Amino acid sequence: PNTVHKITVEVPGEFWTLEDASAVDDCHTAFGLGPVSLTLTKNIPWGAGLGGGSADAAAILLGLETAYGQPLGPQKLGALARTLGADVPFALSGGCAAGRGIGDLLESVGGPLDLGILLVKPEVPVPTAWAYQALDELDRPARPDVELETLSAMLARRDLAAVGRSCTNSFEPV
Fold it and tell me: How many whole angstroms separate alpha carbon 174 and alpha carbon 48?
């Protein structure tokens, strides 16, 4: 018989359900779950390009991993995270890391920085798929890569001015 797997997530001001997605099936299979209902307190605004959806997915995976006595372990959990999105593995591990590949191959570039950040988010959300499609359509020169060791050293020295000069935002023209 066909089983319809479903994960229901309640977020303050929102309510959404994931049904029949292969990633949801993967979660159910991996954890041996029946129907699951979760309440998620969301602090990262949707459509801001800050990985809020990936953070939500990582929080769900970590919650299931904890609730079910860590049946998967870090390797399998990371592999499952990649099926949910390229940056979900980063959201699982957190910290300060450089992503390679599609962003899922992570290398630490130092510990977390204790910094204040001001986030100004316009009223209009920017969907990730649209932003990447628009970026792909731009005729733009290749940007120089910052050597990972150089970036790590700048962060270790807390030389944020040098970090700022070394990094670019590929999405700025979008």
Answer: 13
Of 84, 68, 100, 105, nearest to 22 by C-alpha is 84
Q: How many helices (DSSP H) and strands (DSSP E) are in the chain? A: 7, 5
Distant-in-sequence, close-in-space partners of 32: CB < 8 Å, separation ≥ 6: 68, 71
Which residues 6+ apart lie within 8 Å of 100 measured at CB?
A: 106, 107
Distance CA 18, CA 41 (A): 17
Range 56-83 average pLDDT = 83
> If you search the block for the tokens 């499609």, which residue do you land on?
133
How far is CA 59 from each of CA 43, 67, 120, 135, rounded to the nearest angstrom?
A: 12, 12, 24, 28
- Centre a 10 Å sphere on the Cβ of residue 132 and count the other Cβ atoms it contains: 13
37 beta partners: 8
pLDDT of residue 131: 84
